[in-house]
Amino acid sequence: xxxxxxxxxxxxxxxxxxxxxxxxxxxxxxxxxxxxxxxxxxxxxxxxxxxxxxxxxxxxxxxxxxxxxxxxxxxxxxxxxxxxxxxxxxxxxxxxxxxxxxxxxxxxxxxxxxxxxxxxxxxxxxxxxxxxxxxxxxxxxxxxxxxxxxxxxxxxxxxxxxxxxxxxxxxxxxxxxxxxxxxxxxxxxxxxxxxxxxxxxxxxxxxxxxxxxxxxxxxxxxxxxxxxxxxxxxxxxxxxxxxxxxxxxxxxxxxxxxxxxxxxxxxxxxxxxxxxxxxxxxxxxxxxxxxxxxxxxxxxxxxxxxxxxxxxxxxxxxxxxxxxxxxxxxxxxxxxxxxxxxxxxxxxxxxxxxxxxxxxxxxxxxxxxxxxxxxxxxxxxxxxxxxxxxxxxxxxxxxxxxxxxxxxxxxxxxxxxxxxxxxxxxxxxxxxxxxxxxxxxxxxxxxxxxxxxxxxxxxxxxxxxxxxxxxxxxxxxxxxxxxxxxxxxxxxxxxxxxxxxxxxxxxxxxx
Length: 511
Hints:
Elements: H1 4-12, H2 19-42, H3 47-59, H4 62-67, H5 70-77, H6 90-107, H7 109-138, E1 149-156, H8 171-180, E2 184-190, E3 194-200, E4 203-212, H9 216-220, E5 226-227, E6 243-246, H10 248-254, E7 265-268, E8 271-278, E9 294-297, H11 301-304, E10 322-327, H12 333-350, H13 352-355, E11 358-364, H14 366-369, H15 376-411, H16 413-421, H17 426-460, H18 484-488, H19 499-502
Parallel strand pairs: 4-9, 6-8
Antiparallel strand pairs: 1-10, 1-11, 2-10, 3-4, 3-7, 5-8, 6-9, 7-8
Helix pairs in contact: 1-2, 2-3, 6-17, 7-15, 7-17
């Protein structure tokens, strides 16, 4: 005979009914179960089946609810449905969390606005500063394999220190080093950016020009945006080739990207030059900040320079050209310097008047890139300070958003308690809160990119309008040697800190 009283006691143990009332309910319901059990047995049911059917009918019958106290009966009828269980499909669960997060952000517009604005200002400021550092320090020269590029300087033989007054090379010495060296695949010289007068009809305007020697563009590994660069036969004889290569910004801004620019004539310092090409975008010369509008052959020095410097092509004692060179594969900077010092000793013996006490030093290309900005160390120091400031700004922004989230969490205690009461697990709540935080982060990041873009435009707008085309443009994208196509789709990011990227980027990592 089944023990009906024990079964009913288990059914009522969590309902907190008064003991006298509970005993009366157990007695009455046990009699009801016994009668139903006997009826099922007489109908042909087996004992286990009759027991199960009788007990299931009791739990869902109106007799059982009628025996309960009114408070318990009403709460049972108005009970909330259990929490929705996970569907097992990660994507659909994520979409459900995403929709709930969007509704939550829409209900708390003020909180969402200020949290997004705080993140946008922090990310925007950091992006602006990092763009400046990326443009000036990490990728200052858009050349092929810049880690192979070096610059040469005339130095004092006794002190072995770079001489400020004789850092450059004379044209004749430069040609000797170019012809006799065995450590460079290319060696070229370039003058400082000089102010020239561009005459058009009856009007005159300031134009910045630079004289370059043979193989200047080829040594850097550049490709013209339009036309071509100088041919070897064009720059052999002095004054034989009045041709010019425009910078990309000068073509774009000064000449409005004219499609018929090739073949036009520029009158510079009274000498007509024919435009044969346009340099590649982003290239402003061997300088991190300021570059020329036009490049002219060094053999046109007599037609473009002032009278005291018109004989720089013939005077070995007149240093005028800075030098850029590309190391051959497998040649280090120290090996190249040792080889050139041997050549310098030979030139001292051959031309003692012009080269007495002078030798050659080989420096990273950054020495020439940042020479006008106080040197590479100064730029690295300033960039480091800017990055630290950017990091602090971003940290303050993130801490402010964290405080906002904590304040909002206190106001949501009742909501979380209700969700736990209807069956939501802690992991489920944590996933929902993380989804909402990710939504805030994504919205703040998108707004931050817009703030960073406008911040860079504002910063670059302070360039003087008359020389705006001569200044470097902000570098918006990062490049990776392993996947350049993918990285060109990315905004400025911390991919720049990867050494793999640096092998094709900053030269001083591998110099």
